[in-house]
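User: Before I run my own analysis I want an independent prediction to cross-check against. Here's the chain; please return only the structure tokens and, at the end, one sentence I can use as a sanity check.
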Amino acid sequence: MSARSLNGPTLVERAFGRDPGGEASARGGRSLSMLKSSLALIVGKVATMGLGFLFWLVAARTFEVSEVGLAASAVSAVMLCAAGAGRNRLVPDRALPAPQARS
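Assistant: Structure tokens:
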């Protein structure tokens, strides 16, 4: 017995009416469909947000208000620095003055 007969049609088969896996050679050997990739990203993001919410909920119930506030501000500061480092700058280019020509 195959896994398909036990579990029924897959999500991709229900969405497209067929399994696009046979078209992998036409896509350069990639067998993971865009739908599966999108769903994986969405599920991962929702799981991350849910765990973060649970963390701060437990922290708010366990620690003092000032300690949770200090931790939240530290996390926000680190995330701001990480976002700025990812773009190699914290200020958008349009907010900076144009460079002056040297003479």
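Sanity check: Residues 3-19+32-91 form one domain.
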